Amino acid sequence: MVFEEVGKPLRAVERPIPRPGPGQLLVRVHACAVCRTDLHLLDGEVEIANPPRILGHQIVGTVEQWGEKAPAGDARRVGVPWLGWADGTCEYCTSGRENLCPNARFTGRDIDGGFAEYTVADERYCFQIPPSYSDEQATPLMCAGLIGYRALRMCGEARTLGFYGFGDSAHILVQICRSQGRSVYAFTRPGDEEAQAFALELGAVWAGGSEESPPAQLDAAIIFAPVGSLVPAALRALAPGGTVVCAGIHMSQIPAFPYEILWMERAVRSVANLTREDGNELLALAPGVPVSTRVSTYPLEDANRALEDLRAGRLTGAAVIVP
After folding, report:
1. What is the pLDDT of residues 193-231, one digit of tens each?
2. What is the DSSP letter of 290?
3. CA 126/CA 83 separation, integer angstroms
4. Rounded distance, CA 136 to CA 210, Å?
5. Where are the domains of the chain?
6. Whole-prediction pTM value?
7. Which of 18, 25, 171, 238 yields a CA-CA distance of 20 to 30 A from 192?
8. Closest Cα to residue 171, out of 302, 29, 286?
9. Which residues fall within 8 angstroms of residue 16, CB to CB, at 6 or more apart?
């Protein structure tokens, strides 16, 4: 399912099976979760420099070929994330910050992704999938889980957290927070009682609309929804010294707000991409919680419907494309 230009739906095409080069893996795609970043790419809010491009960056599949010629010795199952390649030599890569590499390439934006039957990936940027997860259940961990986990790390030792937007990332992260003894307050679209009930089911201590004030001050807040007006709303809910973490790759304009809600050493910061360290930590942690993911599956040819269901908020959990 190929992206060709902004404003047009993905188009089904037949292509030859791609050939891996040195250091690459040919992966037969078993499942690929849909991410809000896919909507940002589709809408032109995040640019695809060289279309056409196959979207999809939460991939789980089996290795069919290693390198240029060598066949796979076994059907090893791997996950392919958003970060598909980094140069390894810049000041960011050499200081443990490969997520900020200026030459990085991203799966489903610069490299063909997983809305297909096959993809090619750099072996160094693939993860081993825990055996306790099915293909479909593992896919949201590859981005929703990873970005949520990186955002949580930026919250430090915060014990009381607010999640603004309760979708695929938040439904994973609330389970981790519960296992760590943290309290989560879930903020949803106003009136979305289904999402609020889902948050409470997974362990949130309170759930309400994004316009509401929580019953306790927050040590930290993570904003998953791409809505700039949530930044001042989250700041108003923070205790002194708290942090607002913006977890999306794109957000609408943040409105002006009075300095008094930032004062008292409150902070606002963003999350960019992921590192392999994030992935290894999360995939070691998730089975022990255990993190359970809720997914709705779609056949490959229905990728556009999956994207529109995500856009309209018709999902609890993650949409997953299954070729």
Report:
1. 999 999 999 999 999 999 999 999 999 999 999 999 999
2. T
3. 9
4. 30
5. 2-143+274-322, 146-270
6. 0.95
7. 238
8. 286
9. none
For 146-270, the fitting CATH number among 3.30.499.10, 3.30.590.20, 3.40.50.720, 1.10.10.60 is 3.40.50.720
In the chain, what percentage of residues exceed pLDDT 70? Answer: 98
Tracing tokens 């902004």 back to the chain, one arrives at 6
pLDDT band at 74 (very low <50, low <70, confident <90, very high): low
3 state DSSP class of 265: coil
Is 264 exposed, middle or buried, given 0-12, 13-18 or 19+ CB atoms closer than 10 A?
exposed
Q: Which two tokens stand for residue 112?
A: 């063909």
CATH of domain 2-143+274-322: 3.90.180.10
End-to-end CA distance of the chain: 10
Query: Tens digits of per-residue pLDDT, 254-278?
Result: 999 999 999 999 999 999 999 999 9
Burial 168-183 (b: 16+ CB within 10 A, else e): bbbbbbbbbbbeeebb
